[in-house]
Design goal:
By secondary structure, the protein is α+β, with helices and mostly antiparallel strands. Helices cover 18% and strands 20% of the residues. It has a six-stranded mixed sheet with strand order 10-1-3-4-9-11, with no helix packed on it. It has a three-stranded antiparallel sheet with strand order 2-8-5. Strands 6-7 form a two-stranded antiparallel sheet. The protein is globular. The two termini are 30 Å apart. The model has no long low-confidence stretch (mean pLDDT 94).
Length: 200
C-alpha cells in the first residue's frame, strides 16, 4: 500500500468530486492516476498559502477506464448538468463521453471552455488514463484539518509525493481513522447560498 500526497490547487468539488456516495478522481493529477493501485491512499493538501491543511483523503477502492466510468449507472449523477441550478450538478467530473472513433467528447464542465472543449485540459485529464474511485473517503473542504507534526512530510509543493516511511503511513492511517467519513463540509470554493452539497 502506498500513500500519495499532493496539493489541491482548486478545491471546487470537481477534482476530487466527493458527491453522490463516491469520492472520485477522474481529472487532474494524471501521474497519480496512472500509478495508483487499489488499496492505496491519496491525501489532498491545501496550498501553503492556505496552511497546507488536509482537504481530503480517499482509499482507492476501485480503478476503471473512462469508458467504464461514463457507462456505469453508479456515476450517472456525476455527469455535469447545467440545466439544473445548483452547483453540485455543475461540478460533476464524469465529463468524457466515449465516441465511436475511440476518442472522447469533453462535455461542458469545469474543465471546458463553456460549451466548447478545452484541448489543454482534455489532453491533461485523459493522460491519466484511469479513474480512481473510493467509498472510503474523508472530505473536509472548508473545514480542512491541520496536520499533526507526525504528518509534516505530507506537505508537498506543486508535484506529488508517494515515498513515505512506514511510520508516516502508520501515523496517517491512525489520524484519518479518527475522523468522520464522508462529506464533512462544502468545498473551499463554494457559493455561500448554495446548500446542494448537503443533498448528496
Amino acid at each position: 500500500m502506498k500513500l500519495h500526497s499532493y496539493v489541491v490547487t482548486d478545491d471546487t468539488g470537481f477534482s476530487p468530486n466527493p458527491f453522490w456516495g463516491y469520492c472520485t478522481l477522474a481529472n487532474c493529477k494524471p501521474a497519480i492516476r496512472r500509478s495508483a493501485h487499489a488499496g492505496d491512499w491519496i491525501a489532498g493538501i491545501s496550498p501553503k498559502s492556505n496552511g497546507n491543511k488536509l482537504i481530503y483523503a480517499m482509499r482507492v477502492d476501485e480503478i476503471i477506464s473512462y469508458i467504464e466510468y461514463y457507462e456505469d449507472s453508479r456515476f450517472t449523477a456525476k455527469i455535469p448538468d447545467y440545466d439544473k441550478g445548483t452547483v453540485v450538478y455543475k461540478c460533476g467530473d464524469n465529463i468524457y463521453k466515449p465516441l465511436s472513433n475511440e476518442n472522447f467528447l469533453q462535455l461542458q464542465s469545469m474543465h471546458s471552455n463553456g460549451k466548447n472543449e478545452n484541448p489543454d485540459t482534455k489532453i491533461h485529464d485523459l493522460g491519466g488514463k484511469r479513474v480512481l474511485i473510493s467509498k472510503n473517503f474523508y472530505y473536509f473542504g472548508q473545514k480542512a484539518l491541520n496536520l499533526p507534526e507526525t504528518l509534516e512530510e505530507l506537505k508537498v509543493g506543486r508535484a506529488h509525493k508517494n515515498k513515505f516511511s512506514p511510520d508516516v503511513v502508520s501515523a496517517f492511517l491512525d489520524f484519518i481513522g479518527r475522523q468522520t467519513r464522508g462529506v464533512n463540509a462544502p468545498p473551499s470554493s463554494w457559493p455561500l447560498n448554495d446548500d446542494s452539497w448537503k443533498l448528496v
